[in-house]
Each structure stands twice: as C-alpha cells, then as structure tokens.
C-alpha cells in the first residue's frame, strides 16, 4: 500500500496581499520562506498557518474554557488541512518590565527559589520569601529594585524660571499636565515668580512639601467646581508617583523620562540584589541566592550538579535542562540576574529560542521569524544545529529567513514575490535548493559581499577613552567622523555598551535608532506615523472651508457605524470571532460627509490610497515632500499613505522606523542592525541611504553582523573576542581591506564569504 505524503495543505490563501495561492508544506522538514521584505511571507506563515493552528487547538477545549482563551478569526483561505500544534518564535523584542531577568523569563528562577527554601541554611521559609517582590524578601531600603533612585531637584527644576514658564522640567508635573496647572491655580504658589525668588517657607513647601506632621490642601478646579487636594511637595510627589511604582505600566511617561530627572546608585543595604539582608544569609555550598543569580550559567551548571541532598537534587535536575539549553546556544556567559532589557538583539533572540526548546514533544510545527537576526556569522552554526535537531525529533520547521547560510540548509524553499506589497503575494518558486539557483531572479545564492576598495579618509575622530561600561575593559577607540563605520563582533562582545551607552552619553546629539518596536496599530497609518497626516488634513480644510477634524477617521470624519475602524465585529457569542467590512462606509472608515469634499479631484480616501511614489504629484508642501522622500529613500515607495502600521512586515517596520529618524536633521546617526528583516536586494537601497547621508557631511555608525554592510563600510571596529566577561576588548580597527588580513572571527567570515 502506497504511503501518502505527510504535508500541510493550504489552498486559496488571501490574507493581506496573498493572491489566492496554493501551497503544500512538507512535514518533518526544514521549510524556509524567503523573498523581499513585504512579499507575503508573514501573511502565509503567521497570519494563515500559525493563526489557523492556534484556532483549531482552542476548539479542543470545552466552551467555558475557550471563553477564557485568546480568540482567533479564521484566516481568509479556502482549505487548511493537516496542521499540527505550533510553537512560534517571533522577531518582536522580548517584553518584560524593569524587573524581568533571564532567570524569570526562562522560568529558572522559581526553581532556584524553591531550592533555597528546601535546602538552604539557615532555613528561611517559603520559596516566595526569596523573591525581591515579596513583602518579606524585598530589601527595605530600595523596595526590591536593587538601586536607590532619588529625584534630583537640579534636574527637575529650573530655578531661574517661574511655574508658568515651565520651571518644572518633568512634563507630567509641568503646566501642560493637570498637576502643573493645579500648582499654578491652587493659590499656594506665585505662578509668575522665579522659584529662586520664593521666600524659604514657600520654596520648602513647593520642593519638599509641608513640615512633618502637617498637611496642606489646595483647591483643584474641575467642571463640578473646586475640590480640595493634598499638596505633598514636588520631590515626595515625584518619588511616590514615578519612582515607587513600575513606570513601564504608565502610558504617558517612560522609564527614561523618570531616570533623566533622577540620580540612581547601587543600594548599600542589599548591594544591588534587591533582597532583604536576612534572605542573603541563607546559603547553599557557600553561595547565597544573589550570588547564585550572578554566576555565569556555565558556573551555575557546575553548582547545580554538586547538590547531593535528595530533595535538592530533584529540584536542581528540573532547572538544569533550561540552563543547559542557554549554554548550548552560546549564552553560557550570561547570568540569571541579567536584565532582559539589557540583552543585545542576538542574545535576546537566542534566549527566546531557548525558552521554546525545553520540550521533548514531537510532531510540532516550529515557526521562526528570522532566527538569524542579531547573530554573528560565527553563531549561525549553532542555530543550524538546533533547526536540524528539531527536524530529527520528527518536528516540522518553518522559517522566514533572508540569511543565505540558513536558506542553504533548507529541505524545501518557498520564495514569495515577485515584488513587495501589492506587487507581491505570489509563490515564485517552491522546491529544493538546486532549483532555486535556476529559477529565482530575487535570491542570488552566489552573492558575495563587495569589499570597499576606495574608503573615505577620515580627517577627524570621535575619541573614546577609558570606557568601562558593563563588560568593556578600559576601552580606548578612535571613531572616524563623516564616514560610514561598522561596529561588529559576536553577541555580547560589548558593541551596544560601547556605542549605545558610552558613545551616546558622550555625544548626546547622536540620533540613535535602536531595535525597539514602533507601536503598530490599526489606527496608525504611514501618514500619521511620519507626521504628515495633520498637514494633509489642513490642506483639505483650507481647500474646502471645513474643520480639519472632518478629514480624520479618529475624529469628526469617522464613519458613524464602525467608529472609523472600517470593519465591524458582530457579537457571535462563543463562536469564532468574525470581522466584517463595514457596509456603511465600505471599509473606508470615513463618513459620507467627509467623502463628499475633494482636493485636486480626490477625496480623503482616494488621497490615502496614493502610493508614496505618487504622493508628490498632489502635494508640494516642502515638509510633506521631504518626509515622503525619506520613505522613498528606504525603498518603501510601493506602500500607500493610508496603509496601517499593523499590516507592515518586520523589514518594512524596520525601514519605516529608520525613515522617521532620517527626517530629523542631524550630524551623527547611530543604527542598531539596520539590516534586520531585509532581503539582500533591499540592503543595497539602505546602503545608498547611508552613502548619501555621509556625502552630505554626516557621520553614520552601524552596529551590524551583516557582511554586506561591513564590507561596504569605510571603517570597521570589531569587539570581542567572545561575549560577556570574555569580551569587551577592541580586536580590530581599520578598513574592510585591512580586515581581510586580520586574525579575528569576523575577518575569518569576511574572507570566506568574499572568497579573498
């Protein structure tokens, strides 16, 4: 009897830009989706395959359980068969608040706390008592944060100004917010007198609050009349509202805003651990829990294997596989206490991967979104071994990837295209590697990085001396000005510490473009994100004599039926959610009145349907032209003004973010892995942008692993030799040609890839 081929069957896929395509994805193979950024890869893999698998998985639960679970709408497709449960490792930055560490993210830390509560000596109590977030376990001095953060009155207040002149520099406490307005109208303070001219009693009341034991109230005026509100002083109020709480949960204020007004020092009581001194007295083999947390993971493995107590051994053996997974992925130099927010892109990517690989289940579909992101070529081999081991354990591996080394290990390659956006959404090729060489006009498997033979000569330098941030070993480096500089090295070698910490601190005028997300939403469009929607609305308002708000689907112009969403979500009780195009506005989001007004023969919806390429035919306002041109520069000319940011691919988001920074006029641009999410063909466009910036007299510094960018630079700096404690040194400074003769790990790969 003939064995049927086991594969995932997908028919009539129409999500986003997909053109009614059919696909068979073989199981227990490594399947790589490639193609230009925005060609439809994510629409197949995430919006169809992963979504449908998750939807069908939830259908196995009783209805009352399903109501508590995420609800998934059925993707737009005719047929989706033979799916298996999915594990998704996305490209999005690792979330987590200011307390999130490698230990908590990997679920290792709860086991370590349990270990100390069972076999630590002297015995303390329950596992929760070993947490800096428990009432007993947290340090009484720093409230469990490990740092003593205090407001700095000289940063917070400009004493030469009055309250009305924004003497309080912190926005939520300035006149633009209700608290600042209350200070001016409550009658306690003269809003027009410079703070330095206040009598001592009024100055102390403003800055420190009333004397101990006293309370002071001032009327706060609302639409219902005045209400008495207690005044506690600027510094106590700042401490209470913005320091003694998790700032990451606040919408209007970021942690950076708060820290900019504060001084922060290591807590003298707990020495940065955030733990009560009583907890720190409890030890296992001479180490307390804070010392356990600070061990490098390779050292932690040794300590865990030393435990002989039967109960302790059984707990340790549950923690060992997760620690081993991190070590196997080359992260043995990290510690459990390392804050997730401080990891480099490559480190965070591998921690994320490790978190999902602890399972011994098989017949699972593992989906990876550009797993090579943030990895040095030297580290790709570990990734490839991991993908192979997943396949050998009878799992299906689906990878979205542009890296040629990953594409070359695929059993099945699916290339999407031929272009991006509306020009994409088709399957250009499916099959083995050998066939791709002959049929693809997009992915060139013989591509070699082109070494810059004529680098620009530097005339002056940014000088960095005695830099010791994180793992940096008293680094001294001269970074050439007005040229294209690449800073490279393995993950954790000190690139970000040198550039995004030390360099940005010394040169605060730097326009730094990190890897953070842009806050995508279905209400945010390309035009709003780039800051030109207000101008377009004003142009419509001027031409028609109507209020500008009429041309916003978030304001007066919203369709009254769908409130400007363009879709309605009827209540279908416990069934799968359904999104229906709004019948009243036909998905345009605008009211009939808004659509009745035109500018240059087009209504607001028709204007928003213009591609970036077409926009300058309708608008000649210099501000709009300049911002639209930055989108063209980064290769996004095919997108429309009204495209929602939530519908963009990872590579498109990366370039949109870059365009938003390029519209700022600056002299120093510092970019963290600008090649993320980009196909090799897209890289050339980005390189042109950097070359143009340098030609205009700017300095462009990129922290990169991509050899195309390193080879095209005028100057290269390599950090290393390894990550963590074994990194933090400058290994190489010179031109790409010089690097071909160097003995470093990046030089080895540059020689290999260029054939030099």
Compact summary:
Keywords: ATP-binding, Cytoplasm, DNA damage, DNA excision, DNA repair, DNA-binding, Excision nuclease, Metal-binding, Nucleotide-binding, Repeat, Zinc, Zinc-finger. InterPro entries: ABC_transporter-like_ATP-bd, P-loop_NTPase, UvrA_DNA-bd. The protein is α/β, with parallel strands linked by helices and 756 residues long.
Describe it.
The chain is of the alpha/beta class and 756 residues long. The protein is 33% helix and 16% strand. The protein contains 29 helices and 25 strands. α4 packs antiparallel against α13 (310-328) and α12 (297-306) runs antiparallel to α13. The chain starts with 6 loop residues before the first strand and ends with a helix. The model has no long low-confidence stretch (mean pLDDT 89).
């Amino acid at each position: 009897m003939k064995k049927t081929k086991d594969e995932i069957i997908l028919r009539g896929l129409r999500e986003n830009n997909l053109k009614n395509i059919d696909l068979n994805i073989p199981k227990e193979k490594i399947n790589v989706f490639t193609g230009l950024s925005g060609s439809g890869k994510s629409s197949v893999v995430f919006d169809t395959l992963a979504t449908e698998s998750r939807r069908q998985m939830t259908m196995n639960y009783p209805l009352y359980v399903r109501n508590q679970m995420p609800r998934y709408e059925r993707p737009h497709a005719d047929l989706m068969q033979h799916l298996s449960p999915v594990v998704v490792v996305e490209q999005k930055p690792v979330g987590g608040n200011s307390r999130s560490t490698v230990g908590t993210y990997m679920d290792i830390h709860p086991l370590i706390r349990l270990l100390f509560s069972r076999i630590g000596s002297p015995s303390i109590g329950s596992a929760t008592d070993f947490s800096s977030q428990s009432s007993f376990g947290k340090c009484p001095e720093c409230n469990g944060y490990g740092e003593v953060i205090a407001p700095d009155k000289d940063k917070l207040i400009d004493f030469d100004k009055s309250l009305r002149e924004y003497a309080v520099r912190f926005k939520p406490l300035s006149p633009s917010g209700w608290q600042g307005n209350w200070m001016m109208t409550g009658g306690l303070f003269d809003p027009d007198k410079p703070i330095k001219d206040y009598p001592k009693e009024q100055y102390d009341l403003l800055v420190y609050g009333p004397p101990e034991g006293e309370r002071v109230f001032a009327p706060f005026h609302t639409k219902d009349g005045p209400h008495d509100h207690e005044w506690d002083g600027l510094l106590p109020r700042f401490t209470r509202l913005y320091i003694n709480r998790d700032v990451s949960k606040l919408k209007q204020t970021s942690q950076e805003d708060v820290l900019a007004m504060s001084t922060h020092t290591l807590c003298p009581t707990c020495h940065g651990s955030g733990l009560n001194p009583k907890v720190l007295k409890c030890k296992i083999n001479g180490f307390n829990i804070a010392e356990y947390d600070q061990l490098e993971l390779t050292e932690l493995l040794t300590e865990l294997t030393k435990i002989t107590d039967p109960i302790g051994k059984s707990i340790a053996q549950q923690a060992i596989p997760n620690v081993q997974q991190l070590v196997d992925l080359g992260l043995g130099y990290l510690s459990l206490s390392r804050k997730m927010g401080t990891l480099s892109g490559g480190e965070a990517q591998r921690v994320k991967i490790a978190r999902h690989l602890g399972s011994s289940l098989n017949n699972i579909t593992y989906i990876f979104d550009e797993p090579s992101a943030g990895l040095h070529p030297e580290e790709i081999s570990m990734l490839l071994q991991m993908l192979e081991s997943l396949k050998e354990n009878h799992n299906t591996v689906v990878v979205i990837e542009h890296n040629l080394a990953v594409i070359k290990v695929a059993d099945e390659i699916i290339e999407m295209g031929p272009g991006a956006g509306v020009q994409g959404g088709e399957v250009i090729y499916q099959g083995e590697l050998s066939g791709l060489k002959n049929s693809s006009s997009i992915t060139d498997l013989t591509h070699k990085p082109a070494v810059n033979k004529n680098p620009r000569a530097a005339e002056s330098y940014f000088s960095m001396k005695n830099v010791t941030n994180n793992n940096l070993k008293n680094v001294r480096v001269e970074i050439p000005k007005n040229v294209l500089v690449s800073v490279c090295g393995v993950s954790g070698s000190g690139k970000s510490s040198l550039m995004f910490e030390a360099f940005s601190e010394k040169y605060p005028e730097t326009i730094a473009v990190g890897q953070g997300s842009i806050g995508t939403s279905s209400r945010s469009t390309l035009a709003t994100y780039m800051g030109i929607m207000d101008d377009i609305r004003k142009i419509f308002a001027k031409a028609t004599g109507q209020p500008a708000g009429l041309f916003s689907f978030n304001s007066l112009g919203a369709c009254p039926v769908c409130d400007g969403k363009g879709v309605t979500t009827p209540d279908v009780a416990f069934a799968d959610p359904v999104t229906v195009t709004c019948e009243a506005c036909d998905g345009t989001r605008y009211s009939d009145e808004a659509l009745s007004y035109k500018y240059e023969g087009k209504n607001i919806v028709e204007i928003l349907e213009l591609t970036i390429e077409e926009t300058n035919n309708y608008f000649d306002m210099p501000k709009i032209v300049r911002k639209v041109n930055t989108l063209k520069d980064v290769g996004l000319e095919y997108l429309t003004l009204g495209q929602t940011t939530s519908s963009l691919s990872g590579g498109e988001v990366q370039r949109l973010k870059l365009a938003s920074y390029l519209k700022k006029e600056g002299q120093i641009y510092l970019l963290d892995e600008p090649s993320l999410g980009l196909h090799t063909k897209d890289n050339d466009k980005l390189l042109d942008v950097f070359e143009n910036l340098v030609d205009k007299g700017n300095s462009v510094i990129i922290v990169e692993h991509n050899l195309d960018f390193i080879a095209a630079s005028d100057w290269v700096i390599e950090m290393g030799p390894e990550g963590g404690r074994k990194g933090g040194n400058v290994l190489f400074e010179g031109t790409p040609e010089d690097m071909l003769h160097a003995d470093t790990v990046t030089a080895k790969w540059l020689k290999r890839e260029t054939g030099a």
